[in-house]
Structures are given as C-alpha cells and as structure tokens.
Amino acid sequence: MSVRPQPGILDIALYEGGQAHVEGVADVVKLSSNENPFGPSLAAQEAFRRIAGQLHRYPPTDHADLRAAIAAVHGLDADRVICGAGSDEIITFLCQAYAGPGDEVVYTEHGFSMYRISALAAGATPVEVPERARTVDVDAVLAGVTERTRLVFIANPANPTGTMLPEDDISRLADGLPESALLVLDGAYAEYVEGFDGGAAQVEARNSVVMTRTFSKIYGLGGLRVGWGYGAQEVIGVLNRVRGPFNLGQPALETARAALLDRGYVTYCQSENARLRAWLTEALTDLGVGVDPSSTNFILARFDNPAEADACDAYLKSQGLIVRKVAGYKLPEALRITVGDESACRRVVHAIRQFREGQA
Ligand SMILES: *Cc1c(COP(=O)(O)O)cnc(C)c1O
C-alpha cells in the first residue's frame, strides 16, 4: 500500500491498559488502573439509569450544566472550563491545537504515557527530561525547554511515581518558561490531596497555565470517559475549535454532574484512601519494600531489582492480585499498586510477605 500515515504516527507505541483477568484464577482483584475500589456513587448510578429513555436525543454541544457544576464546586469561571472524553481528550486537543511538526512537547522521565502519544499523533517532537529520585526536577525541565517548546506536561501528583511537587516549585517552573510555551498541570489525582486545588490558582495567576482533571479516578467513572480542562479564555477558545460538538454523550454529562455534586461520597473515598494508603505503605516498608510517600490512590513498590519485581508480579497474579508493571515508565524494579479496599490491601500485603519469605 502506498498510502502513508502522517510522520510520527508509526512511532506511537500502543497504550497498554491495566490487565483485568488472570487465566484460571477466580476471585481476581484488579489493582492495575487506579480505579476507585468503591465504584461510582449511588447518585451517579441513578443519574445514569435515569437517562436511558433519552438516548435518542443528541446531547448539548456546550456542556453548560456540567461546566456550571464544576465551576460551582471548585470556585472557577464556567466559561473557561472545557469538557472532554476523559482528560486524555483534553491532552489530545492541547497537542493538536498547539504542537505540530517542528514543535517540541516536553514531559518527564517517568511521565504519563499519553503526553508522548498525543505529541507524536500531532506530528510534534516529544522531548523527555530526567527526574530526580522519581520526582519531577524543575531545573531539568527548564533545561529541556527551547524556543521550539510549545507544551510542557507535568502530572501533579504524578503517575506512576505518586510523588508531588510543592506549589513553590510549580510557580518557579511556570515563571521560567518562555512565552511561547504552555504549562499543562495534569491534576488527575488532585482530589486525593487534602486542600489541594489541582493547579487552579496557577491558572488564575498566569494565562500560560492549563489544568486538566478527570472523573476517572476518585469519582469512579473511568468507564464513562469524562474529564475537563481549565485555562485562559483564549486557550479554551482554541481548544473548543478542535473539539467535536458532540464529544460527550448525555449519559456522560448527567452522570458526571451527579457524581460531582455528591460531595459526601468524595470525602468518604478520600479518607478511606488516605487511611489504607498509609497502612499499605507502612506494611510494605516493614517488609523491606521501598515505597515513596504517595499523594495518590496508588503506591509504587520498589524491589531490589527488575527480576524480583517480575517474580513478585507473577506471584501476585497467581494469587489473583493484578498490579501494574511499570518497566515502560523506566521503572523496571517497581510495581504500581492501586490502593484497593481494606480486604484487597490485606491480600496484597499478605501475598508480598509470602513472596518475600519464600525468597529468603
Ligand atoms: C488516569 C490519568 C488520567 C486520566 O485519564 P482519563 O482520560 O481522564 O481517564 C490523566 N492523567 C494521568 C496522569 C492519569 O494517571
């Protein structure tokens, strides 16, 4: 065939989702995609059922009700909110609108894989900069920025490391970028950090900062595909030009809104996650497994070497516990483990203890 895709497309390695099944093992717990172990709130489930009889209707194109709810809950300007099919779609819009052939998109060593994928899909050049001890290094990011840089992606807190940069570092990064680049703060895990605004104040302070958020993590709606972005009017206006008018269906819009307004459930999920994350971190540390303090709904468990991480992954799988290998994120000695419910956390610790004792 002589029809060729655009340059860069064939360089994209397909995104690998978290595994969900193990052959021959029943009672499997999926801890590989940072999903909310308690599922979506009952209010969200009711909203989803209620919409079933309306599926013949096209959805609104302006997402006004969902944007108004987002603005009210977070104290933002609804006119500067854009909604997408997951925050992945907002990342795609940003690359499509701001980065093309000859332009550079900067992200960090262990950064979320969608940044590279979306940059390549837009024909831009991905530029990866080193981290320091699994934490974003502001100086390294600034050193990687050139006059060709159009976008800098930072997840805060980060996936798959779980680490977080303090506000001062983010300000220093934003201040150090040239005017020709946008800083994108990916706040997919912001709700797991008590009192954190996900980067909203940075957006308010600078036209060059964009924040992305998602309903896939604490809201337990990964299967629905809803995310949003917040930025300067000019930027959001640009993104809306590349957004398909019907990118979100009515079930997604109504269900996300109901989930957002159920604040009691969000608080419950946040406190359970914090409690179980602390317990899991301490139990694994006691077993001699390296765990950085996590600001997310997962922990990164570091083993002595890649072979031990692979062997532990295989053992966990044999016990019906599916976690995430992160060798593709340049962390071959580590496994990313979602903080599940209490029984799942106990099973993980029990299995890793058995594994470590079997090794000894
Ligand atoms: C899970 C995750 C997202 C969310 O993706 P959606 O498309 O909203 O499901 C975004 N960024 C990071 C770093 C994530 O881990």
TrEMBL record:
Statement: the UniProt record of this protein carries the keyword Amino-acid biosynthesis: yes
InterPro entries associated with the record: Aminotransferase_I/II_large (IPR004839), HisP_aminotrans (IPR005861), HistidinolP_aminotransfase (IPR050106), PyrdxlP-dep_Trfase (IPR015424), PyrdxlP-dep_Trfase_major (IPR015421), PyrdxlP-dep_Trfase_small (IPR015422)
Highest taxon of source: Bacteria
Matching Pfam families: Aminotran_1_2
Keyword terms: Amino-acid biosynthesis, Aminotransferase, Histidine biosynthesis, Pyridoxal phosphate, Transferase
Listed cofactors: pyridoxal 5'-phosphate
Catalytic activity: L-histidinol phosphate + 2-oxoglutarate = 3-(imidazol-4-yl)-2-oxopropyl phosphate + L-glutamate
BP terms from Gene Ontology: L-histidine biosynthetic process
Aminotransferase class I/classII large domain segment(s): 27-352
Regions annotated as coiled coil: none
GO molecular function: histidinol-phosphate transaminase activity; pyridoxal phosphate binding
Annotated positions of the N6-(pyridoxal phosphate)lysine modification: 217
Annotated EC: 2.6.1.9
Pathway the protein contributes to: Amino-acid biosynthesis; L-histidine biosynthesis; L-histidine from 5-phospho-alpha-D-ribose 1-diphosphate: step 7/9
Entries under CDD domains matching the protein: AAT_like (cd00609)
Subunit-structure text: Homodimer.
HAMAP family, per database record: HisC_aminotrans_2
NCBIfam families: hisC
Family designation: Belongs to the class-II pyridoxal-phosphate-dependent aminotransferase family. Histidinol-phosphate aminotransferase subfamily.
Protein name (record): Histidinol-phosphate aminotransferase
Organism, as annotated: Rhodovulum imhoffii
